[in-house]
Each structure stands twice: as C-alpha cells, then as structure tokens.
Amino acid sequence: MPRPVHFELSVENPERAITFYQNTFGWRVQTWEGPMEYRLVMTGEEQPGIDGGFTRRQPGQGAGTVNTLSVPNIDEAIAAVTRNGGQVVMPKQAIPGVGYIAYCLDTEGNTFGIMQSDESAR
Question: Which residues are paired to 42 by β-bridges?
C-alpha cells in the first residue's frame, strides 16, 4: 500500500523559510546537489515522521504542501490515478540517481506526488 514518504513546501524565499523552520522546530536543511534548485529537509531522527523539501514557488503557484507517495510502479500508479478520476498535472520525469516522479490532482483538487525509486533513473 503506497504511503507518504516525502513532503514538499513551495516557498517564495528559501533562505527565509530555512531560517524559520530551523529556528522554530530545529529542522536541518541542506542544498540538494541535483539538477534543480531544491533544499532537503530533515525533520528528526528515531521518531515516526517523514522528511521533505523546499522548492521555490513558481509564478502563479499558490502556497501549499505536496505529499509524495512511494509506489512500486509509477506507470501503473498513473493509470490508476486517471482511471479513478484524478489528473496528471506533471508527467513522469526522471530524477537522476533517485527514481521517477509525477504530480497529480485527486478528485478534490489536491496536488500529490507519486514516486518510484530507481537509482538507475536518468
């Protein structure tokens, strides 16, 4: 059963967001060395919970949180989303060395991600 494994906060000012979350909750943040601007967020250790990231908010994009679900097969998950009334808003893309990701809308207009881990993704 797919479970949330990652959250993503869209932020206008990454440095301001980092300062807020570090000072308020003690979260650790590091810059991801991947092909896009992204900050990895570690929310804790040895307790239930998930880690996430900060992404720079794009023009016209509203504030919000996107939860990403781990799926064993992203193509099958995309088919299930559309078959059950959801929409794909960002098609499957490779994250080199990590896996494949797509963003979707549920039937209520909520954005969520689905991700298949695959270190050979290019």
Answer: 28
Render each residue's pLDDT in the chain as its tens digit; 122 residues: 899 999 999 999 999 999 999 999 999 999 999 888 999 999 998 888 999 999 999 888 888 899 999 999 999 999 999 999 999 999 999 999 999 999 999 998 889 999 999 999 99
CATH number of the CATH domain containing 111: 3.10.180.10
* Rounded Cα–Cα distance for residues 95 and 109 (Å): 25
What's the predicted TM-score (pTM) here? 0.84
Q: Residue 33: which domain range?
A: 1-62
